[in-house]
Amino acid sequence: MDLSSLMLPAVPLVDTHCHLTNGRFDTDREAVIAGLNERGVCRAITIGTGIADGEKVRALVTAHPDRLAGTVGLDPFSCHEAGPDFAAHLTALERLVESRAFCAVGEIGLEHHHQVNPHDLQRDQFAAQLDLAIRHDLPVVIHVREAHPDCLEVLRAHPQARGVIHSFDGDATEVRAYLDLGWHISLNGMLGYKGNDYLREAAKTVPSDRLLVETDAPYLPPMPFRGRRNEPALVAATAGLLADLRGERLDDLAAWTTANACRLFRLPLPW
Ligand SMILES: [Zn+2]
Q1: CA 216 – ligand 1 centroid, Å
Q2: pLDDT per position as a tens digit, 198-220
Q3: How confident is the model over 140-156, as a mean pLDDT?
Q4: What is the pLDDT, as a whole number, of residue 4?
Q5: pTM of the complete model
Q6: Ligand 1 centroid vs 107 CA: distance in angstroms?
Q7: 52 C-alpha to center of ligand 1: Å?
Q8: Nearest Cα residue to 70 out of 60, 82, 80
Q9: Strand partners, 71
Q10: Which residue of 1, 51, 176, 267 is surrounded by the most CB atoms within 10 Å?
Q11: Gap from CA of 153 to ligand 1 centroid (Å)
Q12: In this structure, which CATH number among 3.20.20.140, 3.30.565.10, 3.90.950.20, 3.10.180.10 belongs to the domain 11-265?
């Protein structure tokens, strides 16, 4: 299947989570960014993982203020790499955030699938960054893998924090718990993967004013593009599947998710 055969909504989409600084975009990064609008994407939010990557995100976003927005955070893998230098990285994160080049703090969160820092340390490092986001009045992009009970507990202790559970992978009960705390839910290509019936059921239960779409490019390409590199334009495939699952018109779903993204991240609406 070719990109040009994707059905595009009348209203452009926001890819709320991608990694355009990733090395897999080194050969065609500028072309991918230049082609966003004609592929139905009004903006891509590129996510910085760690300080060095955050600096790259800042440079990229500064060069493309109309097409991109950026975030920076110490994700569980960056926290693990920082080791005893976590406090210094947290200070550097605050300096970056103070530059006001970013629309959110993240991704930050909890990773229980891969072996990184001990769970209690991860919670502390996650909480410290939620506090930072609250101090700077910024929304938060959350990474949570196989750690919903811990994540919900940390979020309950931070009622002023707001944002999105990115690459959501959970069931309808977990959707409910995050919604009750005021969080948004973002879905990507995993929605179409075999064996993810629980996720498809969960996706139907998210109210249209809390729903976001993303790619997590270059990872997790949606069906039927699995096996190739993911990119922001493929967010339309997830939006199409989501509209089908929910029995909604693609144009409506695009309008809602784009409005939600612009409201949450304080970005200008494309219309
Ligand atoms: Zn990510």
Answers
A1: 5
A2: 999 999 999 999 999 999 999 99
A3: 98
A4: 83
A5: 0.97
A6: 6
A7: 15
A8: 60
A9: 47, 104
A10: 51
A11: 22
A12: 3.20.20.140
